[in-house]
Structures are given as C-alpha cells and as structure tokens.
Amino acid sequence: MGSELSIPELCAHFDSEELRRLGKRFKKIDLDGSGSLSIEEFLRLPELQQNPLVQRVIDIFDTDQNGEVDFKEFIQGMSQFSVRGDKEAKLRFAFRIYDMDKDGFISNGELFQVLKMMVGSNLKDAQLQQIVNKTIIFADKDGDGKISYAEFCDIVGSLDVHKKMTIDV
Amino acid sequence: SLRLQPLEAFYWAVQLIGRLVGLVLLVATLLAVFNFSFGIRRLYIRILLHLFEQAVEKRRPPSRKESSDNLSRDNRLIQRHAKLTTEGIELLHADCASSDDPSKASTSSQKRPFHLSDLCVFVQSGIESIIEDEVTKRFAAEDLASWNLLTRTNKYQFISSRLTCYWVLGCFLRYCILFPFRMLLALTAVLYLVIGSLIIALLPWPGLRRYLNSILTPTAFRLFARAFSAVLRFHDVENMPQNNGICVANHTSPIDVVVLGCRQVFSIVGQSHGGFTGFMQKTLHRTSPHIWFERSESSDASVVKRKLEEHVSTPGLPPVLIFPEGTCINNTSVMMFRKGGFEAGGVVYPVAIKYDPRFADCFWNSSACGMVTYLFMMMTSWAIVADVWYLPPQIQQEGESSVAFANRVKRQIAGRGGLVDLQWDGNLKRSKPKSSLQEQHREAFRKRIYGLSVTDQMEGSGAG
Predict the structure, then answer these.
(1) Which candidate from A131, A155, A169 shows the least CB-CB separation from B78?
(2) Which of B202, B221, B222, B200 is nearest to B211 (CA)?
C-alpha cells in the first residue's frame, strides 16, 4: 500500500498532518492489511453498521466499482467533505447518493430505493411511492419525470446543505 | 594453583551477586509485608516525567488541531456533528444546522415532510464515524498526545538525535536492567503466594486461616505491584469496600485485580482460564472463596446471580470484586454495565481506576496477545501509575430497576475517573451490534416524515 507521500496530486484539500491521520485511520479499519477496505471491514464499525445509508456511502467511495475502497479512493472521497472542499463537491456527493446508476438523473425508482433504505419496512410501499411521486413533481422543473443535477441543486442548494456535510479532520 | 584462581574468582563473583539479589528480594518482600516504601519508585516517576517534558519540546510545534486535542479529555480526531447512537440521532455543535433543526435536539422529535436534503445527517454521521467512531477506538490503545519514548505507542519517527539517544538508553534500561529484576520479583511473589497458601490451607482452624490470608494475599499483591514498578494513589479510603459488599470497578486489564488487591482481600468474580492464569486462580482459591465461572455459564446469568446472592448473604465473607463491563476496555471510557452484580441485593461499592497512559499502555487486548505476552509488555514498560478512587457505597433505590441502578453507578465511576460514559456494549469487541439498532433509526425517520396527514404534507412540500 502506498504511503500518504506517494499521492501528491490528491491532497489538494488535506495537509500532510491530516493525511497522516487519515492514513492511520485507514490502516486501523483495514484489518487484514490488504490495502483496501472491504464492506465487511467497514461494517465492523458499530456506528456505521446501524446507518441506513451505509451501502450508498461506500458505493460512492468505490469509484472503480471493484467492491473495495483503496487508499486513493478513500482520500478522494474524504476530500469532498473537507472544510476546504467546495460546495459543488458536497452537493455532487449528495446527488450521487440518490443517483444509483450514475446517469446524472435521479429517477423515480432510484429515489424509491434510497428512501426505502432510510425507512425500511416501516412504511408500506404504496405510502413510500406517494412520497416519492410528490417529491419528484415538486422538484422536476422540465417535466421529464426525473430530477437532474441542476434541479437537485435548486432544491437543496439554498439550504446550506454543504455546511452540514463538512468534516474538519 | 594459578589455573584455579580465575575460576574461583568467577564462582565467588556469582555467589556474591546471587547473595545480593537474594538480599534485595528479601528486603522487597519485607517492605511489601509491612507496606513500607523508600520512595524510590516515586522518584523514578518524577525523573521520567521530566524526561518526557523534554521530549515534547522537541516535537513539531502543535498545530491548531493538536492544541484543541490537548484540551479535550477524549483525544478526538474530529469534532462530531452527527452521531447515530442507541438513543437516536444526536446533533451536536449545531452551528451548521439550518433553520429547521434546533440545536442538540434529536431529529426524531421534529416532524416535517420528506425533503431531498434529509439524507445529510445519515451521510454526515456515516463519514464521521468512518474517520473516528466512539466504539472501536475504545478497543485499541489510547493515542498519546506526545511520545513517551516507547515504540509500541507511537511508531518511531526520527525527531532529534537527543531523543533517539534517550530512546536507546530507555530500551536498555527497560529490557536489560529493569526486566530481569522485575521478573525475579514477580517469581518471588508467585512463590510467596503459592507456598503461603499451601501452608495456610493445611491449618485446621478457619478463623486462623482467614486471618493469615488477610495478611498473605494483600502482601503478595503488593509484591506483584512492585514487580511492575507500580505507583498507586488511593483516594477516599474511608469508602473502602466492606465484608459482604459488592465492589464494582471499570476494567482495563488483569492488573486491576492486583491494584485493588493491594489493600484488602476480595472474592473475585471472573471467568476461569487455563494456563498461568488458571494456576493463579487455583492458588487464590485455596485460602479464600472466589466465584469462577465458565464463559458459557455467564450467558446463563442466573447461575452467577445465585452464587453472588449466596456469597452476599453469608456473613463474614470478603467483599466480591466484579467487573460489570465483562471485558477489558482501553481506560478512556466506561462501557455498558451488565446488571448481574446489581441484582444480588448487597451494598455496592463503586471504584474508579485510571491508569496514566504515559508510563504504560495497560489495556489488555485479549485477541491481540495472551496473558504472558501482556505481562511481559507490562514489565518492560516504564511503570504502572494508577489512581484509584473509592466512591461512597450505593444501594438500589425503591422502584429503581437493576439496569437503572447499574447505569447510575456507571455514571458515577465515569465522572470520578474522568472517563467517557458510553452506552455501547463492551462485547462489540468480539461481536457485531444488533440489527435492531438500524431498524430503530429507520423507524425514527419514518415517524418524522410520515407522521403527518396528507394535507399537512402538501402544505409542507409547497413551502419547502
């Protein structure tokens, strides 16, 4: 596994001290020392395991979709949350949570699936579908039945969501 | 003749060293028996502290993060803004909250229709818990703010040649001088305990046996404590556990037993082990009743409860020593207390134990190393410096459940010892949390977005 020093172009948002901390943390989570974090290793963190959106978060970190998060992906993912990261990056991250197939649009089905993750079986599908439909109608300005990134930013951008999605390493 | 001279001299030297060592061991034993100290260990600790301060000056200047770390007791990497806990979602430091989230309130109490931004709190707490989570960091050694010249706490980084020099000298001192001597002292303590207990067990009078044991066991533990160069500070000794009481303490390592056992005889409640630990358990059991159980039995809590009740109601028996966390934690926090010790009906004597992490990392990670390896690491650390606080005795109040009683005592222990009070189960070291926790959060979220009637929802989404 490369040390922090071998990824100079990535650390735009982290200084060397922060990279060192993140590296240490990465090593602690990487129990088998394989150099990348599998879902099982993530799920050994009790706080993360009870998070309804854990799968989506890990999926976004895993940019090459090989099922594991290596250190580069880890840093790049965290970088979007850094204090020095821009609002755009944070909104993009939030958008990607919903946009499961990464086609740049949140479809009705995708919103349904993510909402179902957050609510579980505590709501009937019909009730859930109602909420999804309402949300899309409200957000969909160009009438294509999906929420584009621009439409997403319109709704969410004004709420200072980017401030809620910041970590100070 | 000339050829014999060097050999004779050699034998003579060995005999002399042997006699000297024997004399020192004898003196140490006598000092332990009479609980007298020359103050050598305290002086040693002061010198070490002075040395560590010098080491800190040499390090890189503290960044803004480090200075706030030094202020917070809990040595955090980041400031948490959102936490998923067993009690719901906690929002902290709500300077980042928008107008619809009141500060420090659980979001589950606020009802509003679903909004696309609702995922933020889950994402935030997820990311934060990847970087630092409250639970797993309790199962690894505490991070120190500054290096204490032990490579086991901080990977070695070259800072200055003076520091490296200190480190090398330190290694030599610890491994080549202190360790052999401590080893001998520990062996003396074991021999003393074994032979003493064999003799006492042979005597026919139980009263006499008990009296002699009340001298033997604490002095043996004191000798053990010296084998670790232990400097122990006891506070509020007037609250010391009495006969037939139940002493509860936070658990960091097997040395907790030695620390508490220096002052009085306990009946220890613990899991029966094999090997060296099992041997020690058998030795102790010869002279005083203890409660040992199999780990499989501990899930059958009624067995332990019955044994405890029997012990507490038989007059004249020493206080029970129980560690309600059930496993070793790293001494920065107190985790969930099992209610077993609090149901037996006796008077509970809470005790808080805090080790100074600069001198040794006392946390025993039983999955990482066995008992003997652990003792070796303890004996090659600088010293064991611990504060022990005896808190006032507690009884179960009217209408208070055992769980509430346990939590109350836990809060007291955490407060006194300067430890973080956590609701998490220490057993998470070995097993995964219940899936019901995830369901709990889902249900809370559902209540938030669907508690309203249809018309309310239409108005809400119109305004949002």
Answers:
(1) A169
(2) B200
Tokens describing residue A143: 């009438």
Q: What is the pLDDT of residues B370-406, one digit of tens each?
A: 888 888 888 888 889 999 999 999 998 888 888 889 9
Q: Does the domain made of A87-163 have the CATH classification 3.40.50.2000?
A: no
User: Distance between terminal CA atoms of chain B?
Assistant: 107
A21, A156, A164: residue with CB nearest B116? A156
* Residue intervals in chain A for CATH 1.10.238.10: 15-80, 87-163
In 3D, which of B304, B396, B301 has the Cα closest to residue B345?
Answer: B396
- CA dist B135 to B50, B84, B338, B420, Å? 33, 12, 17, 11
Q: What is the ipTM of this complex?
A: 0.86
Tell me whether A119 touches chain B (CB under 8 Å): yes
pLDDT in tens, A17-45: 788 888 888 888 888 888 899 888 888 88
Overall fold of domain A15-80 = Recoverin; domain 1 (1.10.238)
Any B CB within 8 A of A153 CB: no
A119·B445 Cβ contact <8 A: yes
Give the C-alpha separation, B178 to B167, whole Å. 15
